[in-house]
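Re: duplicated header lines in exported C-alpha cells

Our pipeline writes sequence and C-alpha cells for each protein into one text file. With two proteins the header for the second block appears twice in some exports. Here is an export where it did not happen, for reference. First protein block:
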Amino acid sequence: MTEIIDGNAVASEIRDDLTDAIETLTDAGARPGLATVLMGDDPASQTYVNMKQRDCEEVGIESVHVDVAGDASPETLYEEIAALNDDPAVHGYIVQAPVPDHVDYREVIRRVDPAKDVDGFHPENVGRLVAGDARFRPCTPHGVQKLLESAGVDLEGKDVTIVGRSDIVGKPLANLLIQKADDGNATVTVCHSRTEDLAAKTRDADIVVAAAGAPELVDGSMIGDGAVVIDVGVNRVDADTEKGYELVGDVEFESAKEQASSITPVPGGVGPMTRAMLLYNTVKAASLQEGVDVDLP
C-alpha cells in the first residue's frame, strides 16, 4: 500500500521540537524575532503572511509585520529593509514575493542582511549552500529533505529527478541532495521546460520531486514502480466547488499514487513544511546572532 507522507504531522513535530530551543533563547533574554514585509495588497501574499504570523505565535517567536504601499518607491522598501537589518530584536525576516513590477526583487534580496536572510536567498547564503557550508537551507528544499527523512528514504546512491529549476526550489534542492552528507549523496537530474522526453527522466528515478508550477504535469505513466514522489506544486484550478476552484499539485495524485511507494498530497504535504522550516531558520538565526547554543531538530 502506498504511504501518504503527512506534511502536517511532520511539520507539527518540528514545531514541537523547536520549543526547547525557543525557551532556552527566551530565558537568555534573546527571544527569537521574525519580521515579514509585504509590499502591496496581493490577497495570496497576505494569506501567507498571516499564516506565518500565526505560526510564530504558536511556538513563542516574536512576530513583526511591515506593510509597504504597493505604489511606493523602491527606496521606501529599501529603507524598511535597512531598519530591519539594524533592529537587534529582529533575528530574521522575509520580503514576501512577488513585489510590484517596478521593484527589482534581486536587488531587494541583495539588501537583506545575510545573517537575517531566513529564506536563504541572498547571494552569500546561496554560495555557502553550494560550497557545503550552508548558514540557512532554503525552507522548501529543507522541508523536502525532512519529509524524505520522515518516510525513511535513504538517499545515498539514489537517482533523483527534480522537475523545475527555480532559484527557490529546484536549484537549491539539487545542491543539497548531492552534498556529501547523511541527507545527501544522491545522483540528481534537474529537468525543465526545455528537457527532451521528460517522462523517460522521471520514470528512471527512484525519487521524483515535482516543482515546476504546472498543474498535474506529472502523471502515473511518468512514475517508475515503487518510486517516492514529492509534490511541491500548489496550483489553483477552476472547479465546481463552493469557492469555484481547488488546489492541485504538479502531480496527478490518483494515477501517481498507483505507482509510488510513498507520495505527498496537495495540500498537506510540502506546504506545511516550508512554514515549519522558516521557524527553524529563525531560531537558528537567533542562536547564531545571540551566541546562545541550542539543539535544533
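Second protein block, exported in the same file:
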Amino acid sequence: MNPLKIALLAALALALALAAPALHAAPLEVIASFSILGDFVTRVGGERVVVTTLVGAGADAHNYQPRPSDARRLGNARLIVANGLGFDEWIERLAQSAGYRGTILIASAGIRPLTEEDEHRHAHESAVDPHAWQDVSNASRYVANIAEALSQADPAGAAVYRQNAARYTAELEALDATIRRTLATVPAERRKVVSSHDAFGYFSHAYDVRFLAAAGISTQSEPSAGGIAQLIRQLRREKAPAVFVESISDPRLAERISHESGARLGGMLYSDALSNADGPAPTYLAMMRHNLETLMKGLAPAP
C-alpha cells in the first residue's frame, strides 16, 4: 500500500480513537426538584443531559414527601437543581440522607425575593414568596444559573450550554415583552383577579395585575372561614371580574368564591407545576402563554 495512504489511514484512526470518548460520553445526570425546573434544565442541557424530575407534572411540590426511590435516584446524579426560597427544602434533606456529595444548585440565586409584606397582604408576616418563575424576567436568571452549573459539572459542554441558554433567553425575553404589551391593553381597574393560593405575587409585580388569594403562599395554608367571607365581601365591593382555578388546588374553593361573590369562573391557571405532555402547559413557555390567554379571556367584559 502507498506509504502516504498508510499515514493518512493511521492519522484518521488516531483521530477517531481520540474522538470516541467524546462521541460516546454518558450524558450528565441531573435531578430537578419539580417540573418547571426540569423543563429549564432540559432546554439548557439539550442532549448532553438526562433530567429526572422528582415532583412531576400536575403535582404539588409544597407538600411533597420524598420516597425511598427518590433517594436511589440521587445515586448517579452529578447535579441537583432546586428552587430555594423555602419552596423545596425537602430536597436538601433528601440529598443528605442519600449521602449525595455533588453540587446542589439553588436556581433562584440572585433574584430579589418578595415577601407577603412586599405584596401588601399580611404585614405582620414576612414569609418569602418562592414562586419567582412567575416573572419571566426571573426565568432568565434561573436559566443563567443552570447554564453555569452545567458548565462546571461538564466543562466539555460549556459552549453548548451557553448557546442553548442564549437561544432560550431570547425566547423568554420575547415572551416577557408579549405579556407586558398584551396586559397593558386591559384597563387598570379590570386588572384584578382571584386565585386559590398566593402564587402570583411576582407576576403581579412584573405585569401590574392585582391578585387576591384565598390562601397564603403555600398550598399548605388553609384559608379560614372568616378570611373567605372577607375576601367575598371585598370582591363584591371591588367588582373583580373573575375567579381562577389553579391546576394544583381543589377547584371547590374557587367555585364557592365565584358563586358567592358573583365573579365568574375565569378558567385554570398553572402556578407551581406544568401539565402533562398532552395538556395546555407542558413547558414553561407554554404555561405562561396559556396563563396569559386565560387571564385575557377572564378579564374581558362579560358578553
